[in-house]
Design a protein that fits this description.
Layout: H1 4-15, E1 19-24, H2 35-44, E2 48-51, H3 61-71, E3 76-78, E4 92-98, H4 104-121, E5 124-132, H5 140-144, H6 155-168, E6 172-176, H7 187-194, E7 201-204, H8 210-219, E8 223-226, H9 228-232, H10 236-245
Parallel strand pairs: 1-2, 1-8, 2-3, 3-4, 4-5, 5-6, 6-7, 7-8
The structure holds SN-glycerol-1-phosphate.
């Protein structure tokens, strides 16, 4: 097992290049119909594809991975809500520990029981300090995780949590307001967290427009994840990718 994907995160961060990731929810895609979306992602310079969800009811993860790997060269990273959402054919796995919550199962319990399977999968494992931030209404992740999200105006709690995660060994910190969040993570919180960690910072949940993606990058996010908005309007991918990859100062900061 190498560290190719993680090295690409680190290298982009070192160069100050922001990355754009499109999140694919296995429940909302039909593997045989993915090709146009994958071509669009490739054409727009999407950096990563994430695959997974807090609750997945379909049973075609392997098929989705097969199709994506066959039709597309963008690195495919699993973003599992549960240890069953693992396929050794992807490129890497975000190995999430829900450090913002106090549910021991999601901090370490599920990791213990799934560790042999994860190791045997051969996947590149990226230890990720996963932080759920209040998105203004209950989201699937806040309900399923059975753990309180961090209030979205408590920047200090987020900062201390991210710092602790980094010192405990997380290689990425992921601030997530949850899929479809009404209120995305604020720039103030992103700024505070980014200023106090040195590992790459991933931000997602409720990002619907290029301006917000851009402002998040200016505040210190290294990777922007968008799922819902591009599911509804795939043509947004081009503008979002452009915003994330563009130079500072073309959009005024918050
Ligand atoms: C959710 O961060 C991701 O885990 C993406 O959220 O679907 O709201 O873009 P959206």
């Amino acid at each position: 097992m190498g560290y190719k994907i993680y090295d690409s995160f680190s290298e982009k961060k070192r160069r100050g290049q922001k990355a754009f990731a499109v999140l694919l929810d296995p429940d909302r895609i039909r593997p045989e119909k993915l090709r146009p979306l994958l071509d669009l992602c490739t054409g727009c310079g999407v950096d990563y594809l994430l695959l997974g969800g807090s609750l997945v009811v379909t049973n075609h993860l392997d098929l989705c991975v097969d199709r994506i790997k066959k039709d597309c060269k963008i690195p495919l990273i699993l973003f599992p809500g549960h240890p069953t959402q693992i396929s050794g054919k992807a490129d890497a796995l975000l190995y999430l520990s829900l450090i913002s919550g106090r549910n021991p199962e999601l901090l370490i319990g599920q990791h213990v029981t799934s560790a042999p399977a994860v190791r045997q999968s051969g996947l590149e494992v990226i230890s990720t300090g996963y932080m759920v931030i209040d998105g203004g209404a209950p989201t699937t992740v806040s309900y399923i995780s059975n753990a309180s999200p961090i209030p979205n105006d408590k920047e200090d709690i987020a900062m201390c949590t991210a710092m602790a995660g980094e010192m405990l060994g997380s290689k990425l910190i992921y601030l997530d307001a949850g899929s479809g969040a009404r209120i995305p993570v604020t720039e103030n919180m992103i700024r505070k967290v980014a200023a106090n960690i040195s590992v790459p910072l991933v931000v997602g949940g409720g990002i619907r427009d290029p301006e917000k993606a851009y402002r998040n990058c200016r505040a210190g996010a290294d990777v922007i994840v968008v799922g819902n908005a591009v599911e509804k309007s795939p043509e947004l991918i081009r503008d979002l990718a452009f915003a994330v990859h563009s130079e500072p100062a073309t959009v005024s900061p918050e």
